[in-house]
Structures are given as structure tokens and as C-alpha cells.
Amino acid sequence: MGRRPTKSGKVRLAEVAERAGVSPITASRFFRNPEALSIAKRARVESAAKELGYVPNLAARALASQRTEVIAVLIPSLANNVFSDVLRGIYDASEGSRHSIQLSNTRYSILEEEKLLRLFLAQKPAGLIITGIDQTTEARAMLKAADCPIVQIMEIGPDPIDMMIGFSHYEAARAAWSPRCAGLPQNWIHRSTHGSAGAATAGRLPGRHEGGLAVRCTLYCRNGSADLRHARRHPFD
Q1: Cβ atoms within 10 Å of 182's Cβ, excluding its own
Q2: I need a surface site. Which of 12, 24, 60, 221 has the fewest CB within 10 A?
Q3: 71: number of CA atoms within 13 Å, CB side?
Q4: Within-domain flag for 3
Q5: What is the number of alpha carbons within 13 Å of residue 10 lying toward its C-beta?
Q6: Boundary residue ending a domain (38, 56, 74)
């Protein structure tokens, strides 16, 4: 079967306006800010666009407005059920708005996250949602310079780039494990392992679910001792 013949030209905005019985400016306003039109005019322009198969030129609109209607979302995993719930909430919140979601998976790589940030921010998103607070220095610089709302999710800390939604992993681990660490020597302290720079040299204890939070405790030797066997055999369970 051969290819179907193509049309000689694309549908123009003026044709949509003519079919809807409105001015080209009004039709253009519908695609930029539909809330500015009456319900009746919105319905007419939308119906005309569907009948004619009109697709607005988003690249031209972004060039004119310096902003797209895309919300960029960066998460570290598509397989983790936690992020499935997060994505469901994001899509539910954006449903019915003029914004669309552009999703990307960083696969728990801060370098991949940095690369994707460059790509997304170059596209001038309406907003950006990023997981966690442990970005690289270069990524933080890009986020601070971004001309759009930034939301860091799943964790909070002392230095937000713009907005944060989540909880402190450090405080959660401390609250869950403090009663169980009472028998350790005084030269040990405990912290959460999330994004910790010293995790490679720390002795890790089994993750536990307490208070509805999955927590893993890492023990650090305050005096720098490399002998972590005491932490591993401490009877926490």
C-alpha cells in the first residue's frame, strides 16, 4: 500500500478563527490563555481546531513567550512504587490545566540528572520538579539561575533552591533509631544514609520500617576509627 497523499499546506490559525467565527487574535489567545475567553468562545475555537486538525506551533510560541507549557519532572526510578504514587499525584494535579508533563528517569545518577537538567532548562519549562536535595554543584547553579518555579521533592533540608516538599531523612532516621542506639559507646553517632558523603566508610545496619517510614541507619565513628565490627554485631534486632 502506498503512502497517502500529503496536503499542500498546513492549517493556519486564521482558518481556525474563521471557522470559529472569531478574530485571529481571539483564536491565538485561546491557545495561550484559554481562561481569558468566555466559555462559548472557548468551545467554538476548540471545536474548530479539532475539525481542521490544527496543531499549534509550540516552538514559535515558546520563542515569543520565552516559556513553554511543559512541567519537567526528574525522578530516579520508574520501577519503585514510591515514585509511581508521586507521578500519579503530579498527573492528577495537572489534569485539566494547559500544562503537560515531561518525564525523565535519572536512574539514581547525579551526572545523568545534571545532563537532563541542561536539556530540560534549555526548553524553557513552565516549572521543574526534581527528586531529592543532593544535586551537583553545577546542577544547583543551573537550578538557581532557572527562570521558572523549582520544586525539590521527597526530602527537605536547610538550603532550598526554591520550594521543598517532603521530610528530613536525617530526622526520620534519628527518631526511629535513637531509642535502639542507646547501648552504643559514646564515640558513635548515627545518621541517615541518604546522599551521605561518608557512606562508603560507614557500617550499615539493616533497614527497618518504623512509624511508616523505611529507614536505614548508618553508624559513623566519631574518632575516625576504621573498626566497624562493633556496629555490625550490635543486637538491634
Answers
A1: 7
A2: 60
A3: 19
A4: no
A5: 7
A6: 56
Q: Please state the domain count of the chain.
A: 3
Give the pLDDT confidence of 172-205 residue by residue, as tens digits.
Answer: 877 777 766 666 555 554 443 333 333 333 333 3
pTM (2 d.p.): 0.59
Alpha helices in 33-72 (DSSP H): 39-52, 58-65
- The number of C-alpha atoms within 13 Å of 175 and in the hemisphere containing its C-beta is 12
* Alpha carbons 151 and 143: distance in angstroms, whole number: 10
Structural domain boundaries enclosing 189: 169-232
How large is the average pLDDT for residues 30-51? 88
Do 48 and 77 reside in the same domain of the chain? no
CA distance 208 to 206: 6
Given the DSSP bridges, would you call strands 208-210 and 203-204 parallel, antiparallel or unpaired?
A: unpaired
